Amino acid sequence: MKAFVVDKYKKKGALRLASLPEPELQDNDVLVRIQATAVNLLDSKVRDGEFKLILPYRPPFVLGHDVAGTVVKAGSRVRRFKVGDQVYARPRDHRIGTFAEFIAIDQSDVALKPNNLSMTEAASIPLVGLTAWQALVEVGKVKPGQKVFIQAGSGGVGTFAIQLAKHLGATVATTTSAGNAELARSLGADVVIDYKTQDFEKVLSGYDLVLNSQDPKTLEKSLSVLKPGGQLISISGPPDPAFAGELGLNLFLKLVLRLLSRGVRKKAKRLGIRYSFLFMRAEGQQLGQITSLIESGAIRPVVDKVFPFEKTGDALAYVETGRAKGKVVITVAD
Fold first, then answer.
1. Is the alpha carbon torsion for 219, 141, 136, 64 positive or negative?
2. Residue 21 and residue 28: Cα distance in Å, rounded?
3. From CA 207, how far away is CA 55, in angstroms rounded?
4. What pairs with residue 6 in β-bridges?
């Protein structure tokens, strides 16, 4: 099969198109013929080695975290899917590799593709959908009437999270450029802040939850818009001790992560705010619940550009510009 490979960790490193053997199937795996995949900033960060302390992939490895395609083989213990099923997934860490023609995925990471989406649209959903779900439903437990601030409302996570927060009954604020304000409103945002001309910390107050996806300076400002008892959930760091515990890291790495987040945790505690770092995980059951929301019309995908498979490097470069509205998708096969 053809696949795009990272030969070594390198800032802005190139991807190499390589011929690889078809993935080996384990008993709980389905082999998926990939019809579409999507690009995330996480792909750039993994390629650049930013996560190699916690995700030590050994080059050469295949990049890619989103997939939509068709099951072509099933392992001996697979009961949830059969050959011919149209599925989508965010494969679990250490088993990524969707910039390829085939991938073997544990059945528990997989869900049936929404009936009302094309493969291209479906590929845009898993990573950002699960990130938003785990932040707002699992950790945040957002309830009707609460106020939620979602940063970068025109980005991949933002476009999904706005819709999910509205579905959960929240009042939603977001930041974006003036040119993308109408998109944010069309997705359900009640308050749209132009980050180029307005300071969100001067506009917002008394919020129940902030979903932070920006830099440390923005993270610190976010504390001031929350009410006592509110939650600050960050998907861009810094990692906290609970995350280190979940990963089962050694004592040294646990100490490093504790020190990285000590400043924001202390400030949050002083203000009576809960801080948590979220690094989303693969979860087919949650993806199945997301499928139901999409099929009911509560959430729609937002796809900016679609690239052919041979232009995977260009798709990654476009995502790195930070200008994408929603997701960037790659078509792999018909």
1. positive
2. 20
3. 33
4. 61
pLDDT in the model for residue 257: 87
Classify burial at 259, counting beta carbons within 10 Å of its beta carbon; exposed 0-12, middle 13-18, buried 19 or more: exposed
Q: How far is CA 200 from the centre of its chain?
A: 23
Are the C-beta atoms of residues 174 and 162 closer than 8 Å to each other? yes
Q: Which residues of the chain have pLDDT under 50?
A: none
**What distance, in Å, lies between the first and last C-alpha atoms of the chain?**
15
- Sheet containing 2-6: give its strands across: 16-19, 2-6, 61-62
Per-residue model confidence as pLDDT tens digits over 266-301: 999 999 999 999 999 999 999 999 999 999 999 999
DSSP classification of residue 309? G
Q: What is the pLDDT of residue 77?
A: 98
What tokens appear for 224 in the block?
């001031």
Helix, strand, coil share (%) of the chain residues, nearest 5: 35, 25, 40
For 111, the 3-state DSSP assignment is strand
Q: Are 317 and 41 in contact (CB under 8 A)?
A: no
What is the predicted pLDDT for the residue at 250?
87
pLDDT more than 70, % of the chain: 99
173 close to 195: Cβ distance less than 8 angstroms: no
The pTM for the full model equals 0.97
CA distances from 136 to 50, 159, 183, 238 (A): 26, 14, 21, 19
Predicted pLDDT of residue 52: 87
